[in-house]
Amino acid sequence: MQQNTFLELDGIACRYGATQVLNDIDLAIDKGEFVALLGSSGCGKTTLLRVLAGFVAPTAGRVQLRQKDVTSLPPDRRGVSLVFQSYALWPHMTVAQNIGYGLRLRRVAKAEIARRVGEVQSMLGLDGLGERKPAALSGGQRQRVALGRALAVDPEILLLDEPLSNLDARIRLSVRHELRALQRRLGITAVHVTHDREEAMVMADRIVILDAGRIAQQGTPEEVYNRPASAFVAAFMGAENILQLTGSPEGDRFAIAAGPANAGAHVPLAGRPLGSGPVDARFRPEAARIAAAGSALPEGGAVFHGTVLAASYPGGVWRHTIRIGEAEIMADAAQAFAPGDRVDVHVPAEALFLFDRPQTHPPVAPVSRTATAGKVPA
Ligand SMILES: Nc1ncnc2c1ncn2[C@@H]1O[C@H](COP(=O)(O)OP(=O)(O)OP(=O)(O)O)[C@@H](O)[C@H]1O
């Protein structure tokens, strides 16, 4: 265990009946850190949060808080507060009563509850709304009340289960910002569950990406975005273009062999354990640069030869669908290329993520998205 570790999960596994939901989860969180648990639906994010809170008992492993084993402590003795996506406010109680609820359960004196509720209302911009019922509040205000109820009890750890997902896009951005500022100011340790990549990127000190109940990668937003450790993480972080290449390691670089649709290239291995043979190359549409076939392109990186199939304007840049060999990729450019244009697509070395092709599920030969459905191969 590291010296300043505040909250630690050690070999956590969890299952519901016969369904294994979490496996081998090791995670150490520092005091005051904001950690986002990111992953697709059903990967076990909420279950992990419930293990932290004490609502679900792990089938293996330990939860430690301040280096003390709390695995079998009930939720109310862990010093944690949980905020849910659904607010879970008491509809018959006023804003002030909802915020003071946890304090009443703890039998705090009335005058102290009133003082604390007033303080929390001011902190969250809810002054003047204390006598309203939740039904008379906007979504953003309700979410702030739910947050206020969690903060009123002065938790050491704030567990947030998609608390912003019910808010409309604009309010979400401002509550996101408020929540992060508040967490920093109060120095609370926060674990935030989300499936929204951008939300995790802008709010968290550290992102933990879960895949089918295991940690696929953890690191700062910049690390997981720019140095994805697996094809899964790369795809999850937006590098959805995929091209199949071959090559072999040469010293600290990987030599990409020239093919019918790509030039030969050398890119830094950057610590990736690649072998010789087929690799999957992944990259983001915005990382690519498109030029008319045969134009001069920047040095370094990889160049793919293709034909534009379609162009659309989602705003800011033109997004192109380009056929490269048998595959189709997306790439952005400041100006539009026309369908049928022959183009070269350049991807800088640092934005080209190479992974050994998985052996367990051999990929089907790439099929054009425009191919006729149901066509039987000859
Ligand atoms: N009480 C339960 N009993 C049985 N299975 C459950 C229970 N709660 C969750 N599961 C299952 O455990 C798996 C993980 O669920 P969990 O809610 O942790 O996922 P999640 O990543 O938070 O998903 P989402 O983003 O959709 O909320 C899912 O397959 C889910 O169906």
Automatic annotation (TrEMBL):
Pfam families: ABC_tran, TOBE_2. Transmembrane segments: none annotated. Residues 7-237 form the ABC transporter domain. It is a peripheral membrane protein. InterPro entries: AAA+_ATPase, ABC_SmlMolc_Importer, ABC_transporter-like_ATP-bd, ABC_transporter-like_CS, Mo/tungstate-bd_C_term_dom, P-loop_NTPase, Transp-assoc_OB_typ2. GO terms for cellular component: ATP-binding cassette (ABC) transporter complex. SMART domains: AAA. Gene3D superfamilies: P-loop containing nucleotide triphosphate hydrolases (3.40.50.300). GO terms for molecular function: ABC-type transporter activity; ATP binding; ATP hydrolysis activity. It is found in: Cell inner membrane. Keywords: ATP-binding, Nucleotide-binding, Transport. The keyword Transport applies. Belongs to the ABC transporter superfamily. PANTHER family: SPERMIDINE/PUTRESCINE IMPORT ATP-BINDING PROTEIN POTA, SPERMIDINE_PUTRESCINE IMPORT ATP-BINDING PROTEIN POTA. This is ABC transporter ATP-binding protein. It comes from Ectorhizobium quercum.
